Amino acid sequence: MSPRLKLPVIFFLFILSSCSTNSIVPQSITSHPSLDSKWKSIDSSKGEVRYVNNESGSLIEKQIFCDSKSKKNSQQLHQELLKRMSGVEIIFRDQKTVGDINTIRTHFKGIINKNVAYLILTTFKGSRCVVDVFLISQRIDKFETDMEAYNDYLESELNQFK
Questions:
Q1: 71 Cα distance to chain centroid
Q2: Integer angstrom CA distances of residue 41 from 20, 70, 120, 132, 136
Q3: What is the pLDDT of residues 47-68, one digit of tens each?
Q4: Rounded to the nearest 5°, which phi and psi values hold at 23?
Q5: CB 84 within 8 A of CB 101
Q6: How far apart are CA 79 and CA 95, in angstroms?
Q7: What are phi and psi of 35, to 5 degrees?
Q8: By the 8 A CB rule, do 123 and 68 touch?
Q9: What letters, b where the CB count within 10 A reaches 16 and e where it falls short, cover 26-62?
Q10: 86-125 b/e (C-beta count within 10 Å ≥ 16 → b)
């Protein structure tokens, strides 16, 4: 694990240990058949991103222009999106950038209410911005003592979309 991630991981584990009400013994990570379909993303070439919660029918919408030359806009988009997801508590977030000059992908990953993990994937191609949100229905308690395994799990989910 890189030194850059050690502090957030320690902080994350501390928060989990202090607020966990029912600790579950970590089990082996089972393969997830498919990403949760509760959330559907709609791409747009104009920076308009809509997230539809299919379960409740509510719509989370934010219009923001994504400039491929500025990662700051990407970060603002994610922050705005997360603010608008009512009842969501962000415990841990990690950002990575992969890709080449023509395509920049960033993803944020974290935990919603200790029951669901989320992964946000943003792809830039020129001035086009596509944002996808995936909710992964896995009990996060499995990863309570093994943050590295949790990171590996989310990474494997992300690799399906590269």
A1: 16
A2: 31, 22, 10, 5, 14
A3: 333 443 434 433 333 333 333 3
A4: -80, 130
A5: no
A6: 12
A7: -70, 145
A8: no
A9: eeeeeeeeebbeebebeeeeebbbebbeeeeeeebeb
A10: eeeeeebbeeeeeeeeeebbbbbbbbbebebbbbbbbbbe
DSSP state of 138: -
Which has the higher per-residue pLDDT, 119 or 18?
119
**Order of strands, sheet of 94-99, starting from the edge strand that comes earlier in the sequence:** 94-99, 103-112, 116-125, 128-136
Place of tokens 């928060």: 15
Q: Please report, as a single letter, which amino acid is at residue 80.
A: E
Identify which has the larger pLDDT, 100 or 83: 83
Token pair listed for 50 = 């809509």
Q: Is 158 exposed, middle or buried (0-12, 13-18, 19+ CB in 10 A)?
A: middle
Calpha distance 95→98 (Å, rounded): 10
**Overall size of the chain counted in residues:** 162
Residue 21 identity:
T
